[in-house]
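Batch job 17 of 40 flagged for manual review because the log was empty.
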Amino acid sequence: MEHLELLRELHDRGSLAAVAAALHKTPSALSQQLKAAQRELGVPLVARSGRGLQLTDAGTALARSAVGVATALAEAEASWQRFQGSATGTVRLACFHSAGELLVPGLLDRLRPHPGLVLETSDEDVAQDDFGALAADYDVVVAHRSDDVAAPAREDLVVVPLLREPMDVALPADHPLATRAHVTPADVIGEDWIAPPAEFPIDRVLSAIAARAGAPVRVVRRTTHLPLTELLVARGHGVALLPRYTTREHAPAGLVLVPLRDLRAGRLVEALLRPDRHARWVVRLVVDELVAEAGAVVAP
């Protein structure tokens, strides 16, 4: 099983150095373990690729079989915990900032009936295509992606939909468009915009606005910190796209959210998990309560 797990980690993390850092072992120790596995099995499991290592077809097949073995063990443990009637264990949850603000307080409230379950939370805000890699380090990863693009290939992960959050245009309350029932891309394309870095879901929606309006977007400031964006908009330093449910809970005075028309603008919030971690009972409890909390957020 130890050999299988090493191959799986190498498959998911891409380099022996990354695996060594994750497992708190030295690369040389893992290299010796790989050599021992190859001698034992009688086939090459890795091959040199530039300065690193790449799994052979045999190594890839064994790495994938490790998922099934780990999942079966997790399911057996979950069955035993259900038999005993006690959900115990630690669940590591990673959230991007605004999802944590939106979901984590209510999630903790919902988990109070399970005192044996310890939820550890961490902030992880990365480009939308990079969330999947975080599932190697966390039991549950709350990710977001723009809903106007196809989902990335994530055949090695369990994907649990949580909610769709519309993106509204945030305007200063004294802006000429602030009293509108809605705005179009053509209405707002000429504004000074405050936006997150490229490849974040909100920025992709902003690119779609530019494409629909047929003109470039003028970005005057970039930040991933939504509360800062809200304050800047409220004080008249630009306009922004902001997630509706997250922003409406604490929008500062002087900021107005106006729906965007003629363009599908939103982000999908999902939970990403390795299959064996999804099989753990305590993890399933967390995911079930995440789904419930997301449903309560969306409900009017």
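Reviewer: the log was empty due to a logging misconfiguration, but the result itself is present. The chain is about 45% helix and 25% strand. Unflagging and moving on to job 18.
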